Amino acid sequence: MKPQNFEERVVWCYIIGTYVLYFLGAQFVVAPVMAWLLVLYLLKKLWNQTDETPFEERIMIPVGVWIWIVSMLVIEFAIIMGHYDYDLSIFEAIKSSIKFGKAWALFALFPLIGCLKIRPELISRAICILGVQSLVFLPICYLAKMLELTTPLYVSPLSRFGGTPLLYTVNLYAFDYGKARIFLFAPWGPVLGLVACLYFFIACLEKDKKWQLIGIIAAVAMALASGSRAAVVCLLAVPCLSWLLANLAKSTIQISAAIGVFCAGLISTQLLDWFISFKDNFHAQRAKSSRTREMLGNIALHRWWNEAPIWGHAVVELRGPAVVEHYPVGSHHTWYSLLFLHGIVGAIAFAFPMCWSFMELLIKAQKSAVSWVGLGIILVLFTFCFVEKLDYVAYIYWPALVILGIALKE
Questions:
Q1: Strand (E) or helix (H) holding 285
Q2: 155: which strand partners?
Q3: Going by C-beta distance under 8 Å and a sequence separation of 6 or more, which residues neighbour residue 321?
């Protein structure tokens, strides 16, 4: 498996060189730059495209990708209106727009890049190679933790380009709420769990069974090493749910689902009690973390509704109250962050393309393996949007967004 064109070489080299970029602390800078450059390359090819261009070489942007592009532009408009509402300076608006270009804009850029001639099999092979690297690196991290080596190792000088220092910090292991956890090439534990779940689905695209098995094992190992509760639940539930949804057209699945729903209705009370018990146990595993997340959410919702319901506050309140350990208000949750920062307009602008992609890929997944993976990616993102700020870490899991664009293009 080798790259066959410029766009494939760029994607291939970045993925297999992830750990090099991590130790340079360059991912948060390089990923958005790569995205914008590849989109400019796509626009150049689109500009040069004529009626004489061979069909297999033509650039075609599907409706699903256009919806992501327009929706992200709506979020940028909400950012500008939020600055106008709060009489913030033009400098602040430009600064926020630059942040938008490194975060929310990636949800439009990378699916658009998927419209280039990039084979999903190439991305899956690169992800499996990255999985091998992670399996080699994991024992080193655990050994460093056992020896209690100094952590973090260093913060990259590239931190001057903006963003929290955590995005540029290089760790062999780190402490999160007093517990040592492995982050690998991610800035914190839940992000590694998110990446692991997404890469699990991408590895399923690999046609070579040996590489596929390696990629799946690596994804599971990363999920367990991350210590993320959501990752474990996601790895257990989402593959089963996506398989069920991808086979809805089969009569046997429809009959089985009907019987299952009927039986569940008979024991609904017991199921509800079990769910409440599971939820309580889930939160009790790290009660302090769960309590902080809940309070952050309550503060964000209260201030959104009472202060800026339409366009949001536009800028992040970097230092929250002491009761939430000074975490930024709206962090740890995609929807609370959207409502607090960009109001109801921003929340709808993200919810609409998510719903559209889910429905489109649900239909396509009945006959397409790539669309099944795309459906799994949407389900994973939906799961983690309640425990992580998806836009802030899109630079880490961008290969999944490219696969999403490829699936929408089918």
A1: none
A2: 169
A3: 299
